[in-house]
Amino acid sequence: MRLLIFSDIHGNLPALENVLNKEKANVDGYINLGDVVNYGPWSNECVELVSELKDCHHILGNHEEYFINKYCDVENPLVLDFYHHCIEGFKYTETIRAYNKSLIINEFKVIHTLGVKDYIFHDSDIELTGNMLIGHSHQQFLRVIDGFTIVNPGSIGQNRKYINVSNYVIWDWERNTFELRELKFDLNILLNEMKAQNYPLSCIEYYQSKKTTN
Q1: For residue 92, is it within any domain?
Q2: pTM of the predicted protein model
Q3: pLDDT tens column, 27-54
Q4: CA–CA dist 128, 183 (Å, integer)
């Protein structure tokens, strides 16, 4: 059994399609760790696409909660600019409401993040009481702490290091391995659609300010 683990698509359909087209013939199922929506201009389309995936486990992210509750409690003005723009016209509230808050899969607890909305990075000081699969921090890593494994596949649509690189993981149950992978996508497709959809300039400039890799 080989599973594609992904997280934090954030409305970036071209990046998601890029990864799925590369890996769909190589995997037997999927784990979606949440934050499919918001930021990028294709929240509806990304929810549709992950809903069509065969044998996909879905986890609720904090941005799904914002869309379900029709309220974003983040004080950052930029985050609010994205939220107010992206929630307009969103039509899959009931679909994301059905996402699981957490699951146990093959002795791993699967959840969007630890704590309430804690950002867990490759060097965060944490204690584990079991194996974990998490997302949220947009940073890819695999760590072993006190004999337990924690894996973050990174972000499909909004990489913290290079904005035009998607990170994800292939989990091979038979070999008991996690393979950390990355794949570049064309950032201009995303930026052009944001401009076409009249995103606030602050949002467009946010993506333009991020580092890219050749």
Answers
A1: yes
A2: 0.97
A3: 999 999 999 999 999 999 999 999 999 9
A4: 30
